[in-house]
């Protein structure tokens, strides 16, 4: 995908396959607002300015298990550096569905700790619904986080909202979030709710 028209076509394709706006945002690594804008542009609804967002396509990594392993190894090394700075360790790695899960699985394996999976609230987001109705949930098929220090793994931070709700969910579930690690940070943040954020790539705007 090289331009906004390609993005609109992809958003339409994903919607026709039954994905909600929040899931489309996750698939395209864009904000919910951008996903909604793309879909409204597809319906020729004009007058709404484009959101300030950056499209990220890391499918060349995602399609290769060996590349995923190498990137996840880099993320594990980055997490280890932060844990040393904080003089702590982790008991579980929490993968944010969908794209954070394969990365988190590799990081958890390398650390020899449990794997937990979070389904973010944005996956239930549909146009016309209030965001407050959507809540993140921990998958019952993976580890719980009660009494565990957790490293959160995701692919991209766009607004920081998913990281924030994941940290709150871990805390409400009796665990402790100690670090958030992503491939790309589009927002350029140092921490979320006092939890350090580390990224392999940080995107910054000029002007």
Structural class label: alpha/beta
Fraction of residues in helix: 25-40%
**From the alpha-carbon coordinates, what is the Rg to the nearest angstrom?**
17 Å
What can be said about the biggest beta sheet? Answer: 7 strands, mixed
Average pLDDT confidence is 89
Judging from the principal axes of the Cα atoms, what is the shape?
globular
Query: What CATH first level of the largest domain would be assigned?
Result: Alpha Beta
* Ends apart, CA distance between termini: 25 Å
Stretches with pLDDT under 50, minimum 5 residues: none
In the residues, how many domains can be counted? 2
For the secondary structure, the number of strands is 7
H/I helix tally: 7
Q: Any guess at the CATH architecture of the largest domain?
A: 3-Layer(aba) Sandwich
Strand order of the largest sheet: 3-2-1-4-5-7-6
GO molecular function, one term: orotate phosphoribosyltransferase activity
Family: Belongs to the purine/pyrimidine phosphoribosyltransferase family. GfcR subfamily.
Keywords: DNA-binding, Glycosyltransferase, Transcription, Transcription regulation, Transferase
Pfam family, one: Pribosyltran
């Amino acid at each position: 995908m090289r331009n906004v028209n390609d993005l609109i076509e992809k958003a339409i394709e994903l919607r026709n396959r039954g994905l909600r706006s929040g899931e489309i945002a996750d698939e395209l690594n864009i904000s919910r607002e951008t996903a909604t804008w793309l879909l409204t542009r597809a319906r020729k609804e004009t007058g709404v300015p484009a959101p300030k967002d950056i499209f990220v396509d890391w499918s060349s990594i995602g399609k290769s298990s060996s590349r995923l392993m190498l990137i996840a190894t880099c993320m594990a090394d980055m997490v280890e550096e932060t844990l040393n700075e904080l003089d702590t360790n982790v008991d579980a790695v929490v993968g944010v569905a969908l794209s954070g899960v394969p990365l988190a699985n590799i990081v958890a394996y390398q650390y020899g700790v449990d794997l937990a999976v979070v389904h973010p609230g944005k996956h239930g987001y549909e146009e016309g619904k209030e965001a407050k109705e959507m809540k993140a949930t921990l998958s019952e098929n993976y580890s719980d986080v009660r009494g565990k220090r957790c490293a959160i793994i995701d692919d991209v931070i766009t607004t920081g909202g998913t990281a924030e709700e994941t940290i709150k969910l871990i805390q409400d579930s009796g665990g402790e979030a100690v670090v958030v690690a992503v491939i790309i940070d589009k927002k350029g943040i140092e921490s979320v709710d006092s939890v350090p954020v580390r990224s392999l790539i940080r995107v910054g705007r000029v002007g």
